[in-house]
Design a protein that fits this description.
heterodimer, A: mainly alpha, globular
Chain lengths: 267, 272
């Protein structure tokens, strides 16, 4: 445990030093992050300027919905983004190196230095603050206690999915198509209230890839919106931390199962 | 370096060959084909669902009815299959690796080489439009306009493609100076998807914003051909629409030429 803590500290030290070294590159990617989220929010604004209601949600509600997702997504990107590189490591044969080191393989993946910097997380925090004020969500004790837990739970949901897809890459070397589909479900389908989708997609986003718990159910709770997608009681919105933990444990068990059967790609 | 080459008669054959090679190369990545089609189907489902829900809960805008906007979105996605390809990506890669120097030694026009390569790639992806269209017809009803509008759309799409090619080329040319351009390129992609009318028809933008985005080159890529397709731009406005597209093409082609010349000179100075 002490070793792991030391490794993790070093990991952040290297990340920050790398970012400082490649400052222009960092600024360019930060600009991209701003434009990516900015374009998504602008698109929602343009549409809702013309059509004031989407299934009973106005722009203010949707801004909060997006903010909750953005915060969880940014936290995931800051802490766990390296999990998404596993399929590539497997394909290139670099993954085998991780298996022979005396630390948990998932921990090693997460602590692989890159050019990680909490810039998106800071941006998300700032945006979430504005969106909360703008949407008129009442900030009470429940909000203060539950929002951090929900955001962490949401990041765990994304980690869980990433872990499952990565584990699948042990058997199926090319999982790019699957990654694409999952990314679209997570990044684009979470922008809208769940009730607009057909029943199959609602169930998919609730029970199979539980992205609806990243933002839709919690946002419904804080905005006092009735859930007209699956008829869940409002309290379902507070379940995100539980769902996130359960999901990530499930994914980790699957990951261990996959590791025990991992044979490499024959490099 | 370009100037030292003896002038030759222009021959089209090598460029046709480059395009053919690019088609064959693309065809080997069958997996990406599946990804593109799957991604197309998911996007179409999402757009259909969102627009249907929006029209169900609000009074329909006068400019576009629900069937018209679904047709618009479907055709936009189909166009995206070829428009969203960065045809001159190879230029940026060769600049970074330095292999651009050998390209200059060949008895060909390098920009035309990239154009031929890119067009080959695009033609291959154009074939994908067919299975995608079949999938689309299962999901939504797509209106087909009369032959005149269809011909006007095809012409407008072609000019739009050329405008898109120039924008990509200019972006890739900035690599002569900066080497790393991925982030900048992605920024332009996101902005142009939104401001070009690929995702949301420009006629639905708030009026003040609409006035601005309609003067930008991005509108020439998606919005103009699409509005011709759905009939918002009527036959009496075709000429004006083509004229503005051609204006952007000429202007951007001019900028491309200037940037290419300045960049090529720089490679010679640095020695590649």
């Amino acid at each position: 445990m002490r070793v792991a803590a030391g490794v993790y500290r070093q990991y952040w030290r290297i990340n920050i030093l790398t970012t400082l070294e490649y400052r222009e590159n960092f600024l360019m990617w930060f600009a991209f992050t701003i434009v990516y989220h900015g374009a998504a929010i602008a698109a929602l604004w343009i549409v809702l300027e013309r059509f004031p209601s989407l299934n009973g949600w106005n722009f203010r509600d949707m801004a909060f919905l997006y903010g909750l997702w953005m915060l969880a997504h940014a936290l995931h990107n800051t802490l766990f983004s390296a999990v998404g590189d596993v399929p590539e490591h497997v394909r290139e044969g670099e993954f085998d190196r991780i298996l022979v080191r005396p630390l948990d393989s998932l921990f090693q993946i997460i602590a692989t230095p890159g050019q990680v910097f909490p810039d998106e997380l800071m941006l998300a925090l700032a945006y979430f603050g504005v969106a909360t004020w703008y949407s008129g969500v009442h900030i009470d004790a429940m909000f203060v206690i539950f929002v951090p837990l929900i955001v962490f739970g949401g990041a765990l949901i994304e980690l869980g999915i990433g872990l499952i897809v990565s584990t699948l890459s042990f058997w199926f070397v090319r999982v790019d198509a699957l990654i694409w589909i999952v990314v679209q479900l997570e990044q684009e389908f979470t922008r809208y209230p769940l009730g607009i989708y057909s029943r199959g997609v609602r169930l998919l986003l609730t029970f199979v890839c539980p992205f609806a718990f990243m933002n839709y159910f919690p946002a419904s709770y804080f905005l006092h919106k009735p859930d007209n997608a699956l008829g869940f009681p409002p309290i379902a919105g507070l379940l995100t931390p539980v769902i996130g933990c359960a999901f990530v444990i499930l994914a980790y068990v699957f990951w261990r199962f996959g590791l025990n059967r991992y044979q490499g790609v024959g490099h | 370096m370009i100037g030292t080459l003896p002038r030759r008669r222009f021959r089209i054959e090598p460029y046709v060959e480059f395009a053919k090679r690019a088609i064959m190369r693309e065809a080997t990545y069958r997996f990406d084909v599946f990804t593109s089609i799957a991604s197309f189907a998911i996007r179409l489902y999402l757009l259909k669902t969102v627009w249907t829900a929006l029209y169900a809960h609000n009074p329909a805008p006068q400019e576009l009815s629900l069937p018209a906007i679904l047709t618009y979105s479907t055709v936009a996605l189909l166009m995206g299959l070829v428009m969203d390809i960065d045809q001159t990506r190879a230029l940026h890669e060769r600049l970074r690796e330095g292999s651009i120097a050998t390209d200059f030694m060949k008895p060909i026009s390098v920009p035309l080489y990239f154009f031929a390569e890119g067009t080959g790639e695009v033609l291959f992806h154009a074939v994908l439009m067919l299975p995608s269209l079949v999938i689309a017809l299962f999901l939504v009803h797509v209106d087909v306009p009369g032959p005149a509008a269809l011909a006007a759309f095809a012409l407008s799409f072609l000019i739009g493609y050329l405008v898109g090619f120039c924008i990509n080329f200019i972006l890739n040319c900035t690599a002569f100076w900066t080497l790393e351009i991925s982030a900048g390129q992605m920024i332009v992609t996101w902005v142009s998807d939104l401001l070009g009318g690929e995702l949301i028809p420009l006629v639905l933008f708030p009026p003040a914003l609409q006035a601005v985005v309609e003067t930008l080159p991005f509108a020439a890529m998606f919005s103009t051909p699409l509005l011709i397709y759905v009939g918002t731009i009527g036959p009496d406005e075709y000429l004006r629409a083509f004229a503005s597209q051609v204006f952007w093409f000429v202007l951007l082609a001019g900028i491309s030429t200037l940037m290419w010349r300045a960049g090529a000179k720089r490679v010679v100075v640095q020695g590649g």
